[in-house]
């Protein structure tokens, strides 16, 4: 057994089956053996690759998007630039380079990165050293100082722990992780009683899902989205949430693992593979709006990047002799690649008028 598996096995043997959320939280976030606490998961030598790692175009366009939004906000100074889960710092390095094109924007930025992984914090420090922008790191968004914000979260919400519910003839029950019969591995079981988590389901899913259906809720994601919404209402600003998932709430089992860029059994070798689930953008939007924000989108990533001018940027890079531009462009915007699976949701404070770039503006 992996160290995390051994810890989970002892916990289950002592106290009984645990929720999928508890399983994910331990496998990903254990302070010593957790997947995100003990390694750099990105790139060819890791387990997955994100859009900023595919091409500089992604971070550059997000940076220009933010600069235009800053102008729509009235060009406040200072503005808190916040990134949740910044990875290796690649997106932010490209963002800050593009930000120089808009006078005054880069000088107004106070950069705050929300990152719990110490290895990744070191990578971010290295990536941003040449930018000349001071960085403050945080374990959560609550410690970011007051003031208007521009917030970016790319592939952050998909790694937050989810709960899974299954509809049986008598109602919704919790899907749990238990030891297998041999006591050496893990399996899914269903709680004998009804789950209180059913109250968090979208009403349409809760009432109309067929018998046997599995539905997912992400309490941590809803809480963070609500916190962003409350912050935007109180301080003003905008946020951009980028992830793979569904535009509308729907039943389905999306719990999965990636290891060495291949799908992996999520109940095998916990702590050594990335565990994720599809993001429910309708649920995130509802949580933020109920907290006082205004939502725009979600729109598909391909649509968004095309509206921001990624094809023109690609042509400039081709003319400069950059390699693999066409392959990167295809991965980012093609519907068969990341273009349709990935969605982008914008949240703003109630005083920010008009559509944002990429959302009709």
Automatic annotation (TrEMBL):
Segments passing through the bilayer: none
Q: Which GO terms describe its biological process?
A: methylation
MF terms per GO, please?
Answer: protein-arginine omega-N symmetric methyltransferase activity
**Pfam families membership:** Methyltransf_28
Report the domain of life of the source organism.
Answer: Bacteria
Which spans of this chain does the record mark as coiled coil? none
Which keywords does the record carry? Methyltransferase, Transferase
- Record-linked PANTHER family: PROTEIN ARGININE METHYLTRANSFERASE NDUFAF7, MITOCHONDRIAL
**What is the name of this protein?**
SAM-dependent MidA family methyltransferase
Q: What organism, scientifically named, is this protein from?
A: Oceanibaculum indicum
């Amino acid at each position: 057994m992996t160290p995390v598996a051994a810890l989970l096995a002892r916990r289950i043997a002592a106290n009984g089956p645990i929720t999928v959320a508890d399983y994910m939280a331990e496998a990903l976030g254990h302070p010593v053996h957790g997947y995100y606490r003990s390694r750099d998961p990105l790139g060819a030598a890791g387990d997955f690759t994100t859009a900023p790692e595919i091409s500089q175009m992604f971070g550059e366009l997000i940076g220009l998007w933010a600069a235009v939004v800053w102008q729509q906000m009235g060009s406040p100074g200072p503005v808190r630039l916040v990134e949740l889960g910044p990875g290796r710092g690649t997106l932010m390095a490209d963002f800050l380079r593009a930000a120089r094109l808009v006078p005054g924007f880069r000088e107004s930025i106070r950069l705050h990165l929300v990152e719990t992984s110490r290895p990744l914090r070191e990578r971010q420090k290295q990536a941003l050293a040449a930018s000349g922008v001071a960085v403050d790191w945080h374990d959560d968004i609550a410690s970011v100082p007051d003031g208007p914000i521009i917030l970016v979260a790319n592939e952050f919400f998909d790694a937050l722990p989810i709960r899974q519910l299954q509809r049986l003839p008598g109602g919704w029950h919790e899907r749990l992780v238990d030891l297998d019969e041999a006591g050496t591995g893990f399996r899914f079981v269903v709680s004998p009683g009804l789950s209180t988590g059913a109250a968090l389901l979208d009403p349409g899913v809760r009432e109309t899902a067929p018998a046997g259906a599995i539905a997912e809720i992400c309490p941590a994601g809803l809480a963070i989205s609500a916190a962003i919404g409350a912050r935007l209402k109180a301080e003003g600003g905008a946020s951009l949430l980028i992830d793979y998932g569904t535009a509308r709430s729907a039943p389905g089992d999306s719990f999965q693992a990636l290891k060495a860029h291949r799908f992996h059994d999520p109940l095998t070798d916990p702590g050594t593979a990335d565990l994720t689930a599809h993001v429910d953008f309708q649920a995130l939007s509802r949580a933020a709006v109920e907290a006082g924000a205004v939502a725009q989108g979600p729109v598909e990533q391909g649509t968004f990047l095309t509206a921001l001018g990624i094809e023109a940027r690609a042509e400039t890079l081709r003319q400069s002799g950059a390699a693999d531009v066409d392959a990167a462009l295809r991965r980012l915007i093609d519907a068969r690649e990341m273009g349709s699976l990935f969605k982008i949701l914008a949240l703003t404070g109630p005083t920010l008028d008009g559509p944002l770039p990429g959302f009709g503006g």
